[in-house]
Amino acid sequence: MSVGTPFHPRAAAMNRKMQWREWAGYFASSVYADFHDIEYNAIREAAAVIDLSPLYKYRVTGPDAIRLTDRVITRDATKLGVGQVFYTPWCDEHGKVLDDGTIHRISADELLWTAADPQYRWLTMNAVGLDVRIEDVSEQLACLALQGPFSRAVLEAASGEDFAGLKYFRRRDTVIAGVSVGISRTGYTGDLGYEIWIPADGATAVWDRLFEVGQAYAIRPAGMYALDVTRVEAGLIMLEVDYTSSRHALNPEQNYSPYEIGLGKLVTFDKADYVGKRALAAEVAAGGPERRLVGLQLDWNDIEAAFSAQDLPPAISAYIDREPVPVFAEGRQVGKSTSHGWSPILKQAVALAFVPPRYEKPGTRLQVEWTVEGRRGRVNATVVEMPFLDLPRKRA
């Protein structure tokens, strides 16, 4: 049975339509307002808060905390400085991705590890022989994403401190409403933003303070529908949507290496041995994987024509479609699209897709299956650089 997050007393009161979804055993708001466009606009034009508390969170402590991390992740953990955050995948022994997430270095011997899937067993298995302690703090630590062009102003008003100096993928501590919290310059929207790591018993006090000072900046809560649109615009992948964890894969097709999901740049070989290193090196030596993640821009005129053929006005869902659809080239299926939808800010239909290397070059023309009234057709699509939306303020 799903339960509310530490923010649920406030989130439920603001969720007008009571639209919830299950996320890791918690209620997560799909949308607060009548439609998610106003929440999307808050992320892109003002400030929004998104409850990310269902993320799995682990505190890793002890003299060998970094050694354990280096055994597991594909990046060089010895380069993770105190106050820094790494985004990284980690793999099984076949070089296939188990999950991706962030690792925060709190101090010399303490890390905060976040993940979409449970990782306690995997971390414990790889900690054999090391002087390290792993604690599942998922229920004790709430997380609230504060995102949008005015997020810094809201954070500074709530804490009374200057955050202009906190760089991208860095973190520090502060106090909000008398609650000691961690602030990381991270997010899942591709916009200026922060994630606030809050003791569960102080969650509502921090929420109240953010909304108190945030009224001057048109702050709003945002649900999963709005978050989904922004993460696709930012070219960000989602576990069990754009790729499958190797832990859940039912066949080889469902296994993905970091190079297949656009995370090859986060793979390092000049470091200590880690799980999957040998398999990844062999993949590189063989020329890389047979499928690659690309961004597609769909041709609106073709979409309009598909509706006209059925005597219907053109329409496209404002939600991100997470159902895989075939991608074609030269008259045959060559791949699949995993997430597609309409970008309000770009005024374009965009998609994340997997195709063979010969089709990954920007400018390549492909086709994507498009169904209207049960009739399948194809619309033209062009491979484009990702992210679709790259806002300078994200890193400013």
Tell me the layout of helices and strands.
Elements lengths: L7 H7 L4 E5 L2 E6 L5 H9 L1 E5 L4 E6 L3 H8 L12 E7 L5 E11 L2 E6 L4 H7 L6 E4 L4 E7 L3 H9 L11 E6 L2 E6 L8 E7 L3 H12 L4 E3 L2 H10 L43 H9 L6 E7 L1 H9 L16 E5 L2 E12 L4 E8 L9 E8 L2 E10 L12
Parallel strand pairs: 3-13
Antiparallel strand pairs: 1-2, 3-9, 4-7, 4-8, 5-6, 6-7, 9-12, 10-11, 11-12, 14-17, 14-19, 15-16, 15-18, 16-17, 18-19
Number of helices: 9
Spatial shape: globular
| Assigned CATH architecture of the largest domain | 2-Layer Sandwich
Radius of gyration: 21 Å
Mean pLDDT: 97
**Strands side by side in the biggest sheet:** 10-11-12-9-3-13
Task: Report on the biggest sheet.
Answer: 6 strands, mixed
Classification by helices and strands? alpha+beta
CATH class of the largest domain: Alpha Beta
Pattern of helices and strands: HEEHEEHEEEHEEHEEEHEHHEHEEEEE
Number of domains: 3
Poorly predicted regions are none
What percentage of amino acids are in beta strands? 25-35%
How many E-type strands? 19
CATH topology of the largest domain: Gyrase A, domain 2
- The end-to-end distance, rounded to whole angstroms, is 42 Å
In CATH, what is the homologous superfamily of the largest domain? Probable tRNA modification gtpase trme, domain 1
Q: Percent helix among the residues? A: 10-25%
